[in-house]
Amino acid sequence: MSLTHTGVTNNPADLEPCGREDHPDCGIRDVLDRIGDKWSVLVIVELAGGPRRFRELQRAIDGISQRMLTLTVRRLERDGLVLRTVYPTVPAQVDYRLTETGAGLTHLVKALADWSLAHRGVIAEARRAYDGAHPGHDIR
User: Fold this and answer.
1) Around 112, how many Cα atoms within 13 Å sit in the side-chain half-sphere?
2) Which helix (H) or strand (E) covers residue 77, if one does?
3) CA dihedral 78, 80, 85, 86 (to 10 degrees)
4) What pTM value is reported for the model?
């Protein structure tokens, strides 16, 4: 599948099992630790539109605290997904942009977003049916 392919099929993908004792770690856990949290994905989505300054990111991402945004961009920078550039001005200006690796991830994020939109109703109905069949089992 190419990086630009965002079509979703109903057949399961051919995946090797990860995380089993008899299977070497394929690295997916490490990647999911980084991009599996909502803040990282939201920062990546915002930076897909181009470079942003810290305050622009903070204003664009509803609910993120200054501390959480700082931690998130540092982690993404450490993983090579975001580039932090400091400009020699007074006061110093800093912007954040996606690296080539980070930009490549946007295709997967878009595919996930498209899938989510296409299946929102089905998931909501499945939740209603489950909750109706299992009253008192609040698993949210």
Assistant:
1) 11
2) helix 66-78
3) 20
4) 0.74
Helix, strand, coil percent content, the chain, rounded in steps of 5? 50, 10, 40
Determine phi and psi for 17, rounding to 5 degrees. -70, 140
Q: Which of 110, 105, 86, 104 is nearest to 96 (CA)?
A: 86
CB 87 within 8 A of CB 67: no
Task: Give the tens place of pLDDT for each residue, 6-21.
Answer: 555 678 877 666 666 6
- Tell me the pLDDT tens digit for each residue of 34-82: 778 889 999 999 999 999 999 999 999 999 999 999 999 999 999 999 9
Instruction: Show the tokens assigned to 101.
Output: 């690796």
How far apart, in whole angstroms, are the C-alpha atoms of residue 58 and residue 62? 7
CA separation for the pair 139, 107 (Å, rounded): 31
- Crossing angle of helices 38-47/100-133, nearest 10°? 130
